[in-house]
Design a protein that fits this description.
The protein is α+β, with helices and mostly antiparallel strands. The protein has one domain (2-141): 60s Ribosomal Protein L30, Chain: A (2-Layer Sandwich). It contains five helices and five strands. A five-stranded mixed sheet has the order 2-1-3-4-5. Helix 1 packs across helix 2 and helix 1 crosses helix 3. It is globular. The chain starts with a helix and ends in a 6-residue tail after the last strand. 35% of the residues are buried.
Amino acid sequence: MKNKLKELYDQAVHFHGHPGVFIAIGVRMGLLALKYLNSMGYFDLNALIQTRKKPPYLCLLDGIQISTGSTIGKGNLNFQYSDDEIFGIFKTESGKEIKIVVLPEFLEQIKKQIKDMDRFKMHDVAKQVLQMDEKEIFRVFTPKSRS
């Protein structure tokens, strides 16, 4: 999984044009959704992402597109803007669903780390994010856990 994670991150960086922490977060979120839903992605997965309306938060979308195959162009990746929590709701064609929330305390930590950092120098922070335990980054809600 570690090699696949790095490979997908590298593809996302190439697609996006520069390294970034939120690209890494998007790749991690997408892979987590695929794992929990036992989905192959692409046409099997629909995603609704809530994020903030500015970079670097928007970069999350490119990581999700690369890791899941859900894309804006195919219409199975949609997004909405909010200054509240950052999350993704992922649904398979068979009806399985999951919500993945980026932990607010993690976001605060990352914001402090990358404040005033040149976007081309974020590679080291992004590599840290790729190696972190998913529970340090996300909270996962299944339909049962929402009640």
